[in-house]
Design a protein that fits this description.
Largest sheet: 7 strands, mixed
Number of helices: 25
Structural class: alpha+beta
Strand order of the largest sheet: 16-28-27-26-17-24-25
Shape: elongated
CATH topology of one domain: Calcium-transporting ATPase, cytoplasmic domain N
Strand content: 15-25%
Number of strands: 28
Mean pLDDT: 80
CATH class of one domain: Alpha Beta
Helix content: 40-55%
Amino acid sequence: MSEHQDLHSNPPLRAGSSGCGCSSACQPGLASDTRDDLQTQQPPGEVLRLHLPAMDCPTEEGQIRRALERFTRIRRLSFDLPARSLSIEAPVECWDDIEAAIGTAGFKAERLVTEVQVDKAALARAQFLRPVAALAVAMMAEAIAYISPEALLWKLVGMAVAGIAIALSGLSVFRKGVAALARGQLNINALMSVAVAGAFVIGQWPEAAMVMALYAIAELIEARAVERARDAIKSLLDLSPQEAEVLQDDGEWRVMLAKEVAVGTVVRVRPGERLALDGMVRNGRSAVDQSPVTGESMPVEKGPGDEVFAGTINQDAALEFEVTAPATDTVLARIIHTVEAAEGSRAPTQRFVDRFAAIYTPAVFVLALGLALAGPLLFGWAWLSSVYKALVILVIACPCALVISTPVTVVSGLAAATRRGILIKGGVYLEEARKLRAVALDKTGTVTEGRPRLVATVMLGDMPDEAATRRIAAALASRSDHPVSRAIASGLAVQGVPDVTDFGAEAGRGVFGQVDGHDYVLGNHRWIHERNQCSATLESLMSSHERQGRTITVLADAGKPLALFAVADTVKASSREAIAELAVLGVRPVMLTGDNPATASSIAAEVGIDDVRANLLPQEKLDAIRRLADSGTTVAMVGDGINDAPALATASIGFAMGGMGTHTAMEAADIVIMNDDLRRVPETIRLSQRTHAILWQNITLALGIKLVFLFLAIFDSATMWMAVFADMGASLLVVGNGLRLLRGSKTGGRLPHF
């Protein structure tokens, strides 16, 4: 089955939850931290659009995601931080409960009837100018305090100027901070609200203004960073043209909007143009660059009956294709939706950071309070000095850099994988792939092409007429639908085959018929043996081919065999390299196949696999995965068929081949390889290693910088504005480090080693 069929059969998996989620039909369930994906079945199109005035940073996005984790019938969340909006695909009966959950989390939600078209550039300028203006006003307050520190009038003026700066940059922070404190929560907004208000009260109003302005700028930068990582995914959707050239009922071609083109319509794409929709080629032959969808570096030849995808580029000649999916449901759109859903699943490190921050923030608040109260009593500090140090610690304690470090890195990793044709259904699989120590591989369609081909033709007997013999074999083979017969007919590529009369088939043996008045059979080893036409020489020849994993078919007339044809499923060009790369990574490959031992061993030896398990039924493949897992090995399964689905679902990580794979296999898998290139498996492991390393680098950076400034604050070497600069600097460092995953992930290039 093709990519198109598989990705359109069902909605993408939603990560991060289990249970139900709507009070009208079912009660909310508990979020799952283990297998973070759940298949949902509601139809697309039910979109709740909300405006959230208080949502303006990635931390608050994370709070909303966590508040909605229990709603498993949510199909997709689409956040737009600059526009402060959220689109939720979910059944209408869940909408009230969803809004109530968002309200409980402290965010007022305003329902939008239609999607609001926002001028993103103008909005970005407006959101940027406000904190910049606040920073300028805060600098004026600092200047006033420096010029006239003792004059009461100037103090009042300075306090008023500082108040303006705080109002420009921090009113939303105060609103959210007060709401959090009222709910008994100590989050980032609560810390900043207490710190700024405390500084203002003890007379450090210039610093209070500067801290709030710098904090607002830091929040803006963080939001832009997350949008940049997310745009690396969304930019794929922009590859699809907005218009298409459509065949009309009167035979004329007319340009229409792609979103208005119905399924079944015929569309034409000229050389050099991008395809606007998915479809099946009806007329024409051309090479198509599929790299935006599958990550393939080389163009693919397309002709009548072949599938084409939106966003790909036609190269050589005009193609006419029948549209198979609406513009909102193309393979490319499905990829975007699936990765957006994957953003909602939290990788193990991200869950650790969330749990750590939930303890860290209140602990630092208690520490600061204790320092403010105990400092004068234990260390003889002045009360104002002690309170000031406590407020500096609150600013330093803001876990912005820590909290932002994980989502930016995970989204960047998902985007890097998507650009390479690797569709990962959740951040948990992105990070956990580095732990793999064994990869179980199906043979047919995974290690091999999955399509039998004619690999050898041997003429038998004394001086046969080779051209005539090939024509007779092609005539018989072309009348059969059996895969082996089709491979022979395709491999012989004879033009103008003769007519066949009295054609018939013997089940499990072959076909027969008359050509030019003579009887012929095209049969397998068993039938030729039953016809007593199998000499010792022919028997030896057939056995030699069969030991190489080939299927033998012999053309014979009434008296003797005329030709032998060997058909085999050939190894993919990428399989040998993929197995070698797995070995370098310390991952053991294991072949699990339902094929016979001779064929399996031959293919395994060709690609370098030592552990071969053949003649396996689906349950036996599942048992093999369990035995590997029971031995303490973290194991992946790579397959493409229905018989692989149980093993794919049971393995620690399931990889499905997206080109050849069946719908069932792709639904059961955690990662889909869109171009069937086995090298994407070790590439995923390398990406996982880099992602995990960068996550922990970011955590170390964020905590290390805070620890240094914590000591500086205690020993009177840090001020509040220095603390917020440190927090902002740490945020920029971790964001930039996370975005490094996007480097080298352009289509056609190999992801760099870390």
